[in-house]
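Example 9 (inverse folding). The structure is encoded as follows.
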């Protein structure tokens, strides 16, 4: 790079940077200063260039740097003070300085320079960084929501599931509050997210809170936020609540039936007035959120018992969606199981599958914990299976013991006697193979010769 190019690069850098730079010769005369430093000192370049630095900055340490021939190492930052009146802002009378001498090729002193960091500009840059980082994570969150959300990914072929899906898509086109009821593990939050992603608010935040997982004394500050110093332990700068975080978007109140009565009153006011007030605050803050709530409890029974406000119930349940338990959709059980198993295979780069016997056993179970319980069972079976096959041995005893007869004879209603016998024989062969280490042991367990075992395996197309 030639001298002219180097000078142009340096000039442009000094113009574009938000920091301050100043250069003095070996006598302490100012030879260069950039516009940012001039602005900080509230003086023009023509008032500064050519003057001794101690006449412009009375508290300067540059003369001492020259005297000691201080080379600096880039890590020693000096907090430089200024006298009142020497800076544009009397409240900003400090700057972080990195000072160093400049030498020629023969180690002769040429002068010194200082790189200045200004507090307010550093704070502004930090704020911009935080905003950029926040926007990045918001975009990542929205991208993830796009992948996971929407009713296109809502699993289930049963007509009852399709009814819930179609109802959810219609509701998403409106802005009414929605109450989702049903058993634990039936996908209430999945439905809430899907409604949000299908709605006109999909580009805005989806914020969720579990009303039963937060202590009653903390729930108000979590929902509404608080002003600084409003209670012991509060952050000095205060904190925004979940309602403000969800502004313009959707707020999902999970397990709404666990909300204390005194908080139900405050929530009712929010739904009526469309505004919140922070803990310790004295001004209303307008909000625009769609409320979706969910519960495993019977809220109407709670209304009759006096543990849930009737007026709040009717505010929340403008539209109601009742989820469907997994046992009511037996043909979807294997769909959910294989779909979750596919996710595990993709994550861990495996090719694990379900044996026919395991599938029949899964279909026979009542699944009181619904899809969540099914996923836990598949996870456990995946972790313990051998030879890339989940068998009966990998399933919990509570499932296999309770439904052994059912899974053995399932799907045989339309079979002839011969077909049923073959069906049972195949199941017993598969079970013997999986329980024993080799063909000899399997044949012995079945009480037949090994040659006959081979013939039967070939007959039933069982790999061995």
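The amino acid assigned to each position is listed next.
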């Amino acid at each position: 790079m030639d001298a002219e190019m180097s000078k142009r690069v340096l000039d442009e850098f000094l113009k574009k940077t938000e920091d301050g730079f100043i250069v003095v010769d070996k006598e302490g005369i100012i030879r260069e200063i950039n516009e940012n430093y001039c602005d900080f000192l509230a003086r023009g370049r023509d008032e500064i260039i050519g003057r001794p630095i101690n006449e412009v900055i009375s508290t300067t340490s540059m003369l001492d740097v020259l005297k000691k021939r201080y080379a600096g190492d880039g890590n020693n930052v000096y907090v430089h003070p200024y006298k009142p009146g020497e800076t544009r802002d009397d409240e900003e009378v400090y700057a972080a300085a990195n000072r160093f001498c400049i030498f020629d090729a023969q180690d002769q002193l040429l002068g010194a320079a200082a790189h200045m960091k200004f507090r307010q500009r550093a704070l502004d840059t930090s704020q911009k960084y935080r905003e950029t980082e926040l926007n990045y994570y918001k975009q990542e969150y929205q991208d993830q929501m796009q992948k996971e959300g929407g009713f296109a990914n809502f699993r289930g072929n049963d007509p009852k599931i399709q009814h819930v899906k179609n109802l959810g898509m219609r509701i998403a086109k409106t802005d009414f509050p929605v109450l989702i009821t049903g058993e634990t593990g039936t996908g209430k939050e999945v439905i809430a997210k899907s409604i949000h992603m299908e709605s006109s608010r999909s580009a805005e935040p989806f914020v969720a809170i579990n009303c039963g997982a937060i202590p009653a004394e903390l729930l108000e500050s979590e929902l509404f936020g608080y002003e600084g110093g409003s209670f012991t332990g509060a952050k000095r700068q205060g904190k925004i609540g979940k309602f403000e975080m969800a502004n313009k978007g959707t707020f999902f109140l999970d397990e709404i039936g666990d909300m204390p009565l005194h908080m139900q009153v405050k929530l009712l006011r929010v739904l009526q007035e469309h505004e919140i007030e922070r803990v310790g605050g004295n001004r209303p803050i307008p909000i625009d959120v769609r409320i979706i709530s969910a519960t495993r409890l019977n809220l109407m029974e709670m209304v009759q018992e006096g543990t849930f406000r009737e007026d709040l119930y009717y505010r929340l349940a403008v539209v109601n969606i009742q989820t469907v338990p997994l046992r009511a959709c037996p043909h979807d059980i294997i769909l959910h199981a294989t779909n979750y198993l596919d996710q595990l295979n993709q994550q861990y780069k495996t090719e694990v599958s379900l044996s026919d016997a395991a599938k029949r056993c899964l279909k026979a179970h009542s699944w009181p914990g619904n899809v969540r319980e099914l996923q836990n069972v598949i996870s456990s079976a995946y972790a313990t299976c051998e030879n890339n096959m989940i068998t009966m041995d990998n399933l919990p005893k509570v499932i296999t013991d309770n439904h052994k007869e059912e899974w053995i004879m399932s799907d045989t209603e339309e079979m002839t006697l011969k077909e049923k016998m073959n069906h049972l024989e195949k199941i017993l062969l598969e079970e013997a193979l999986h329980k024993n280490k080799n063909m000899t042991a399997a044949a012995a367990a079945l009480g037949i010769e090994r040659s006959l075992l081979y013939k039967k395996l070939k007959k039933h197309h069982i790999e061995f």
